[in-house]
Design brief:
By secondary structure, this protein is an all-alpha fold. It has one domain (about 20-315): P1 Nuclease (Orthogonal Bundle), CATH 1.10.575.10. The protein contains 13 helices and two strands. The chain binds adenine and zinc ion (2 copies). Belongs to the nuclease type I family. Keywords: Disulfide bond, Endonuclease, Glycoprotein, Hydrolase, Metal-binding, Nuclease.
């Protein structure tokens, strides 16, 4: 094996913990969305993604994480999150100008790839890629630690979950969701798709007739393509509020090296379910809007990224000997 491939494969392995919602959460979000999109939205994306099965959204939901750690995909890393420089648990909140990096963030990415999906002058391959990014990033923006700067979204906080050591970010991406479905005697195991579909169908029923019925119309109130960046920012702010209340209710030091599989899990599980349900329901509404927008030839502008004179961007940076 060449040295470069050793480095690539080991970094891909280490990166596993940073994959948003784990694969399982993203696949569940996609299946929730498939329950609610209109028939014309389903056919549009089945054609664009060249998949006429009912798994057309679920099958591409983790693509953005799979390219993030490749040489080509490195630039997409910052697009998976927005690092709110707030101070949980005393104060939570996101300020786009302060927290979105000049190279982009999950809020600008949702606007950018929505704008590219609407742009019929782009090649079909580019529009299919834009669809895969939108499907993934609507999931990411609902993971509370993807809207938090502290310890790189919890990646630097080591904890225990059911006696195994993980970082807090991984617990919120994967462990809590996997334990929820295991409790429901489904298990994820080696076949995440059937388990995710079953969980998604249960969440869809909660949205239609159960615990989320009263609020679900508020989740998608006032959605407008032209407001993509404001809407994505609202989604991010909502998820970020959970950082102060359930993710770090007493700050990072109170949970460092602690066991989170007990009382912490009990408090976190309803929030993970809520955020996955919201993400899926909103994704369906957003994809419906995009397809109606395409039918009406609507377009939206790409995002304006915050520019900060104090930040030296890659183009301005003089090359260092160490870069060679
Ligand atoms: N890297 C830096 N901050 C991050 C976050 N909030 N989520 C995921 N990856 C990150
Ligand atoms: Zn993550
Ligand atoms: Zn991601």
């Amino acid at each position: 094996m060449k040295l470069s491939s050793v480095i690539l494969s080991s970094s891909a392995f280490l990166a596993g913990g940073a994959s948003a919602w784990g694969g399982f959460g993203h696949i569940t979000v996609a299946y929730v969305a498939s329950n609610f999109v209109s028939n014309s939205t389903a056919s549009y994306f089945q054609t664009l993604l060249r998949n006429d099965t009912s798994d057309y959204l679920a099958n591409v939901a983790t693509w953005a994480d799979s390219i993030r750690y490749t040489k080509w995909g490195r630039w997409t890393g910052p697009l998976h999150y927005i690092d709110a420089k707030d101070s949980p648990p005393d104060s939570c909140g996101i300020i786009y100008e302060r927290d979105c990096k000049p190279e982009g963030c999950v809020v600008s990415a949702i606007q950018n790839y929505t704008s590219r999906l609407l742009d019929q002058s782009l090649h079909v391959v580019e529009r299919a890629q834009a669809a895969k990014f939108v499907i993934h990033f609507v999931g990411d923006i609902h993971q509370p630690l993807h809207t938090e700067d502290v310890e790189k979204g919890g990646n630097g906080i080591s904890v225990f979950f059911d006696e195994k050591r993980f970082n807090l970010h991984h617990v919120w991406d994967s462990s809590i969701a996997e334990k929820i479905v295991t409790h429901k005697k489904q298990g994820v195991g080696r076949r995440p798709f059937p388990a995710a579909k079953k969980w998604a169908d249960a969440l869809a029923e909660e949205i239609r007739e159960g615990q989320y019925k009263a609020n679900s119309s508020d989740w998608v109130k006032g959605l407008e393509l032209k407001e993509a960046s404001e809407i994505a920012l609202q989604w991010a702010i909502e998820g970020n509020e959970h950082v102060c209340t359930v993710v770090l209710p007493e700050g990072p030091e109170a949970i460092r090296d602690q066991e989170l599989g007990g009382a912490y899990f009990e408090a976190a599980a309803p929030i993970v379910e809520l955020q996955i349900a919201k993400a899926g329901y909103r994704l369906a509404a957003w994809l419906d809007l995009i397809v109606s927008g395409i039918e009406k030839n609507e377009t939206i502008s790409p995002p304006t990224l915050p520019k900060r004179p104090d930040v030296v961007t890659a183009e301005q940076k003089p090359m260092m000997l160490g870069d060679l």
